[in-house]
Structures are given as structure tokens and as C-alpha cells.
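Protocol step 4 of 6: structure prediction from sequence.
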Amino acid sequence: MAKVVNNINMELHESTIHKAKENNNSIPSEKIIDGVFNLSGSPQFSAKVGSQFTKFELGCDEPSVLGGPGVHPTPLTYLLFGVMACFSSSLAAQCAEEGLELKDLKVRGKLLYDLGPAVIESDAPIIKGMKLEVISTSNLDRQIKEAWKKCPAVYAIQNPVPTEINQVKA
């Protein structure tokens, strides 16, 4: 049976590290999700997402302040949740790599934003900042710094990601 530390399968984790080292520290990957904006009702947007083992449907609404039904989580809720989930697993893996078994790990996320520029012409930034607070009985200052450098979602938030938006005819 594989050794699991902090809910990280160390055999699989170490295998991935080995593969990256063999390939110039690279493991090219791609994520594709096909979604639908529903023209009536809630959720406004939905998509089937999945892992290697299962598939399920996520729904998303804009809040009522932006004209949405506000029933399902907002896109920004999913954004914050995704960053929190990615960072917490990066941190748990960093601790596991170092042999530090955690007794507890919680993350509180805060997203500061202004919806004004989303509805009226403005040069002001919509997203003002994001703050994650790690709550643990272990002292994780050094591990937090390392996980911060390794977390794909934190990287995407902190660095411009080349983005294209094109229409493809139905």
C-alpha cells in the first residue's frame, strides 16, 4: 500500500517529480471544459467537469446585483475556492515532501473586488486583491513560501496568463 502523508499519495507524488525531472522539469498538460450559458433560469452557466474517476455538473449564477438569479455560487466564488483548494493541496504536499505530518490545515480566503467597473466604463481594477490565511497548529511559514511558488492557481492569479477569446461558429 502506498504511503499517504497529509492525504497526499507520496508514491504518486514522487513519481510525478521523477517524470518532471526526466523531462526538463516539465509535464505539459491541458484542461478543457465545455460549458453552456443557459438563456433562462438558474444556473446561468453550467458545465460537466470531472476527474479521472468521475463526472458531475457545476452550476454558476451571477449575483442579483449583476442581474443574475443568485441561486448558485458566483464565478468569483469558484475562482476563490479554486485558488484555496489548489494552494491547500500544494501546501499539504510541500509538508509531506519534507516529512511534516500535519494535525490540521484550514484555509480562509478573501477576495476584494469592485463590481462598478463590471457594469460601467471605468479604468479601475475589478479585482482589488486576494488574501489567504492558513490556520494550523504547525508552524508553516517556510512551507507556505515554498507552496506559494509551486501552486498553479496562485501562479495564474499573480502572473498574466496569455488569454485568447475567439468566436467559433456553432
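Step 5 (inspection) to follow. The mean pLDDT is 96.
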